[in-house]
Specification:
Layout lengths: L27 E5 L23 H11 L3 E5 L9 H9 L4 E5 L7 H10 L1 E7 L10 H11 L5 E5 L5 H10 L4 E3 L14 H12 L2 E4 L3 H4 L11 H10 L4 E2 L16 H11 L3 H16 L6
Parallel strand pairs: 1-2, 2-3, 3-4, 4-5, 5-6, 6-7, 7-8
The structure holds (1E,3Z)-4-hydroxybuta-1,3-diene-1,2,4-tricarboxylic acid.
């Protein structure tokens, strides 16, 4: 028996357009997920949503259609700390994918080494209340200490309004930090306002990388231009050109208003990284340095 999808669930776009923007050779989609397939990789009992299936083969088909060379597959909360589907996808990609896992503090050294050998390079700490129950900070600190010797990083997912309360804690984590979706700014606020200034100060103070992803999730004005998100992403790319990453966020969990055409998300890239040099850093050089150090694209 498979569980039914959450009511109102929007499925990923099965017929993405061919982007007008040609991604540079070696481009990395540094934020995407797999869901199940549920019959093979059941969702976690503690999940907050039940998605449609989004298999590794469907992810690889999208990769090839868009002209992406490599993926970073981030563990989705619907799979809890059971990383099997994500690891299966990363292994099947044969060196063309890395993974970001969710782990519990009791994880053994052998399991961590196994994840590392499979291609996992980080863990995700999620502070978005609609997605997970809160984890005690001591547990997160313990996990960060365990992964530091492996050279992994922590991916942080939080809402902009929660940064003031979280920022000091983030500063104590002994590993590089990667921020999902620009720290989820409220794009109805000014791009040079206090909230986004605070985020950029935080991004500048620590060993922080920022994903300029998810215009479709952050926008209020909507597709296809995502005009309200563009100034925020441009500012991050301008100020942190050597530490920005891009990703599709396929298969786009929990969107309520529209499901993006992933081809159009690729066409969004030159609006936020306006020169070939900025595009090469965002799409190739930066993610290669973080996820495939020492390898050429
Ligand atoms: C994203 C965003 C979301 C969900 C998850 O792991 C997840 O369930 O990341 C969201 O609902 O905002 O990055 O895919």
């Amino acid at each position: 028996m498979t569980a039914p999808k959450t009511p109102g669930w929007l499925d990923w776009c099965a017929t993405p357009s061919t982007p007008d923007f040609r991604l540079p050779p070696g481009a990395v989609d540094a934020h995407c997920h797999v869901f199940g397939p549920q019959a093979e990789f059941p969702f976690a009992p503690e999940r907050k949503y039940t998605p449609c299936d989004a298999s590794k083969d469907q992810l690889f088909a999208l990769r090839d259609h868009l002209g992406v060379a490599r993926n970073v597959v981030v563990q989705a909360t619907c799979h809890g700390a059971d990383n099997s589907a994500m690891v299966d996808a990363v292994r099947a990609a044969g060196g063309r994918a890395r993974g970001v896992a969710t782990v519990r503090p009791g994880i053994g050294d052998a399991e961590l080494r196994e994840l590392d050998a499979a291609g996992v390079r980080g863990v995700r700490f999620n502070f978005v209340k609609r997605l997970v129950d809160a984890s005690p900070r001591e547990e997160l600190t313990a996990i960060a200490r365990r992964i530091a010797p492996l050279g992994w990083h922590v991916v942080l997912y939080f809402e902009a309004a929660d940064l003031p309360e979280l920022e000091d804690f983030f500063g104590t984590l002994p590993v590089p930090l990667v921020i999902d979706h620009m720290g989820r700014p409220d794009v109805t606020k000014p791009v040079h306002g206090a909230e986004f200034d605070r985020f950029l100060r935080f991004a500048g103070r620590h060993d922080v990388w920022v994903k300029v992803s998810c215009p479709e999730r952050l926008t209020v004005t909507g597709p296809p231009a995502y005009a309200d998100v563009v100034p925020f992403a441009r500012r991050v790319v301008a100020e942190f050109g050597d530490r920005v990453l891009w990703g599709t966020d396929w298969p786009h969990p929990n969107l309520k208003h529209h499901m993006p055409d992933d081809g159009l998300l690729v066409d969004h890239v030159p609006r936020i990284a306006e020169t070939p040099e900025a595009q090469r850093k965002l799409l190739v050089d930066n993610p290669m340095r973080l996820y495939w150090p020492g390898e050429t694209a």
